[in-house]
């Protein structure tokens, strides 16, 4: 069966997806059998020297001394714009911290988009997610704190803080589009090891968001039809109130997940508390499950477009070739396994 309606082109043979086209980018995902393929270059093989002794206080001091996002080095960043303290995040799951803050927002020292294009105001922000540089008892310099290790409540407060930054960016009349972006791990392109997000305000509709808005205008039912197809393929992970999460067959990478609220055609700071909770919950549960793996995610919002997040796991080498992506046929079993793991959690 070849499906083609509402902007979605795909083919299903004998009940299995053969290919599907991303309507925003035009990229085609081909489902392939990778069971016999060897991934000599896979990034997945991580050495966890369980027996290694914990890093010494000297080693920790050495690694964090020059980190601009560590407590004590606040003067190394640009002026602080927002600060959340222990009072703002009930149940913070860290040990007693000498830090007087739990989340800080500053301008990015290196604006993603030159500030002369956004009315002379730097609209690139850094949100430092937590004062902890390392996880508890790190054994190697790679045992960094990561978002999935924060509590669910902490992540909700983090997104609520992002909403304040988004609102601030949109208060600049020169800003038309705002994206929230996270890189986790060296393999995902993170430049700083200390966990943080970026929020970027753009004077023109950001190209990725613009492409989605165009699809939306042409096929206003796109997301509903897509969610229905994803369900039919067995890729849905969880639902929580107005939010749904799934393993996407049209992601940027072979292992990509989406969280979407199909009815919430609004910006992050326009969400009700209930909507924000559902969205944050499903996004956090995926991040928690993925743990410290290298990944990135983006939160996309824009006029008429349902608010959504794309999460890309960077466990496998990037395999987009000339607009084609190979989707391992194992993702279908994988989605079922993830669903069971989430149910247990
Ligand atoms: Zn740090
Ligand atoms: Zn998007």
Number of self-contained structural domains: 2
- Name of the CATH architecture of the largest domain: 2-Layer Sandwich
* Backbone shape: globular
Mean pLDDT: 92
The CATH topology of the largest domain comes to: HIT family, subunit A
> Strand-and-helix sequence, N→C?
EEEEHEEEHEEHHEEEHEEEH
The CATH homologous superfamily of the largest domain is termed: HIT-like
Low-confidence stretches: none
Structural class of the secondary elements?
alpha+beta
**Gyration radius, rounded:** 20 Å
Number of separate strands: 15
Largest sheet: 10 strands, antiparallel
Q: What is the spatial order of strands in the main beta sheet?
A: 5-6-7-9-8-13-14-12-11-10
Distance between the termini: 37 Å
Highest CATH level, the class of the largest domain: Alpha Beta
Helix content: 10-25%
Structure overview:
This protein is α+β, with helices and mostly antiparallel strands and 345 residues long. The protein folds into two domains: 2-35 and 206-344, HIT family, subunit A; 57-202, HIT-like (HIT family, subunit A). It contains six helices and 15 strands. A ten-stranded antiparallel beta sheet has the order 5-6-7-9-8-13-14-12-11-10, sandwiched between helices. A five-stranded mixed beta sheet has the order 1-2-3-4-15, covered by helices on one side. α2 crosses α5 (273-290). The protein is globular, with a radius of gyration of 20 Å. The model has no long low-confidence stretch (mean pLDDT 92). The structure holds zinc ion (ZN) (2 copies). The site of one zinc ion has 6 residues, from loops.
């Amino acid at each position: 069966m070849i499906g083609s309606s509402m902007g979605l082109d795909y083919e299903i043979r004998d009940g299995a997806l053969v290919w599907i086209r991303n309507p925003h980018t035009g990229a085609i995902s081909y489902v392939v059998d990778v069971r016999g393929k060897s991934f000599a270059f896979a990034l997945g093989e991580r050495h966890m020297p369980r027996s290694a002794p914990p890093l010494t206080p000297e080693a920790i001091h050495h690694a964090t001394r020059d980190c601009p996002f560590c407590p004590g080095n606040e003067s190394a960043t640009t002026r602080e714009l927002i600060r959340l303290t222990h009072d703002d995040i009930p149940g913070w799951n860290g040990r007693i911290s000498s830090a007087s803050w739990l989340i800080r927002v500053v301008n990015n020292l290196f604006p993603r988009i030159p500030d002369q294009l956004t009315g002379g105001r730097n609209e690139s922000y850094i949100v430092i997610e937590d004062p902890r540089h390392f996880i508890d008892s790190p054994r190697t310099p790679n045992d960094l704190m990561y978002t999935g290790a924060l509590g669910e409540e902490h992540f909700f407060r983090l997104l609520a803080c992002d909403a304040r930054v988004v609102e601030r960016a949109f208060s600049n009349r020169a800003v038309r589009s705002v994206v929230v972006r996270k890189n986790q791990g060296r393999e995902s392109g993170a430049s700083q090891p200390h966990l943080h997000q970026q929020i970027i305000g753009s004077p023109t509709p950001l190209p990725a968001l613009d492409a989605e808005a165009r699809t939306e205008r042409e096929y206003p039912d796109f997301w509903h039809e897509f969610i229905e197809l994803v369900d039919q393929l067995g890729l849905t992970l969880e639902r929580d109130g107005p939010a749904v999460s799934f393993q996407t067959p049209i992601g940027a990478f072979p292992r990509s997940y989406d969280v979407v609220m199909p009815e919430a055609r609004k910006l992050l700071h326009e969400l009700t508390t209930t909507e924000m909770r559902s969205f944050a919950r499903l996004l956090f549960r995926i991040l928690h499950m993925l743990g410290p793996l290298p990944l990135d995610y983006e939160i996309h919002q824009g006029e008429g477009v349902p608010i959504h997040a794309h999460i890309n796991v960077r466990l496998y080498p990037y395999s987009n070739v000339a607009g084609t992506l190979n989707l391992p046929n194992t993702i279908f079993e994988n989605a079922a396994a993830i669903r069971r793991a989430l149910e247990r959690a």
